[in-house]
Design goal:
Layout (H helix, E strand, L loop, with lengths): L2 H4 L9 H5 L16 E14 L15 E12 L2 E5 L14 E3 L4 E4 L4 H7 L9 E3 L5 H4 L9 E5 H8 L21 E4 L3 E2 L6 E5 L8 E7 L3 E5 L7 H6 L9 H17 L2 E4 L4 H4 L11
Parallel strand pairs: 3-6, 6-7, 7-8, 12-13
Antiparallel strand pairs: 1-2, 1-5, 2-3, 4-5, 9-10, 10-11, 11-12
Length: about 290
Amino acid sequence: MSKARILGIGVVSLATAVLFASCAKAPTPPKAAGSGVERMYVFDCGENQTNDASPWLPGVAAGTPGEFSIHCYLIRHAAGLMLWDAGLADSVADSPNGVTRGQGAIRSIVRKTLASQLAEIGVKPEEVTHIAFSHMHADHVGNANIFTRARLYIQEAEYEAAFGPNASQFGFDRSNYDRLRSDIVLKLNGDYDVFGDGSVTILSTPGHTPGHQSLLVRLPKRGAVLLSGDVAHSADNWVNRRVPVYNFDQEQSRQSMDKITELVKVNKAQLWINHDKTQNASIPKSPAYVE
């Protein structure tokens, strides 16, 4: 199995500053005044390290090292709690020096478990009512199995790949999320307004995986924030339109970049890139929150 298929990660870049300052709004502004979102918590859900990040940054010399942030997001909405992405498995924290994957190409480290961070803000996993993942790679669904009472929102193409007989060909490990098969599942074929008020919108952005998706959240004070998942693995990839050679579909990847670009131009939202360590260092982490 290729390194990139094991995990989508990116290279940290100083171009982050350009992206973090860019602005956006929702694809369709909500009709109701105000937002049902009260606040959003950002959890540190691990880190990946590699001695050779070139598979995720075409054109960069082999042997370039990289460190990549991994985050999970809990949205407190008037209608319930929604978790976006579930990070690396909490069990990784049992190994202080991390665990290696991808034939030693990647070292994964968890310094603080997602379960402990939820407990710190008084939230039990069973209280999460909605859950969605940008995609089903191990650094995004590592703790998925503890949220079995939540409704799962997933693109149908991703569901078929993840729960089908050839999941490993897409870099998926079903042991990370197998308990969700029997949960309440809403299979999507495109964008979806989760709460019906325009405050949280799932965006179909395939390419990195068959049914990759992104999330646009309208916060009451900060405004719109677009969580791009692995549409781009770093700010530098985004600015230079670099697509990892191992993405599921190169053309879909570029089209999804174009879609997000249009949202950024038309709307007023910050673009947050999950794996860009430099950018994410400036984002408040739980128990603090953004609102």
